[in-house]
Amino acid sequence: MNLSLISFFLALIVISSLIVILLKGRAQPIRKSFKPEENSNQENSKVLDQGLVQAKWAEIKTMQNSGPSGLKAALIDADKLLDYCMIGKGFAGETMGDRLKSEGSRFNNLNAVWSAHKLRNQIAHEVEHDLVPEQIKRAIDDLGLAIRDLGIKLS
């Protein structure tokens, strides 16, 4: 009798724990996002929240100074932010690469933007990428300059 009662309570705890884990996994924080794909269904709507861009840029600059993982995250977010700005400014193309190919002439230093985007892809997709902090910081700065080239003021 005692063994079956203990088994029942253990099963109840395990099931309850699984439910909590599943519910937490579905819960997402409510915050305004700058994900480019969220605006892509508006067919180059030219909707661009400059306040969001400036706030996200401030976060990126803070992340950049928080160690190697923060530096990687800052580069990835800076790349996403430029893509968001390109979509908001009406750049044509399915991917960021397509947008850079079709309208890259709008940037003062397209080669630097491409290099930053390629570095971001290496960091995001390669398991063992050698981290060179100065190179990543330069790439982040280049992405910031590209955003400014689009007429968006950053702090």
Structure commentary:
- By secondary structure, the chain is an all-alpha fold.
- It has one domain (37-149).
- It is built from 7 helices and no strands.
What are the SSEs and their pairings?
Elements: H1 2-26, H2 37-40, H3 50-63, H4 67-88, H5 96-103, H6 110-125, H7 133-149
Helix pairs in contact: 3-4, 4-6, 4-7, 6-7
The SSE string, one letter per element, is HHHHHHH
Strand content: under 5%
Q: Can you summarize the main beta sheet?
A: none
Basic shape: elongated
Count every beta strand, where a strand is a DSSP E run of 2 or more residues. Answer: 0
Structural category is mainly alpha
Number of helices: 7
Short structural description:
It contains 7 helices and no strands. It has helices at residues 2-26, 37-40, 50-63, 67-88, 96-103, 110-125, 133-149.
Q: Which short descriptors sum up this protein?
A:
mainly alpha, 155 residues
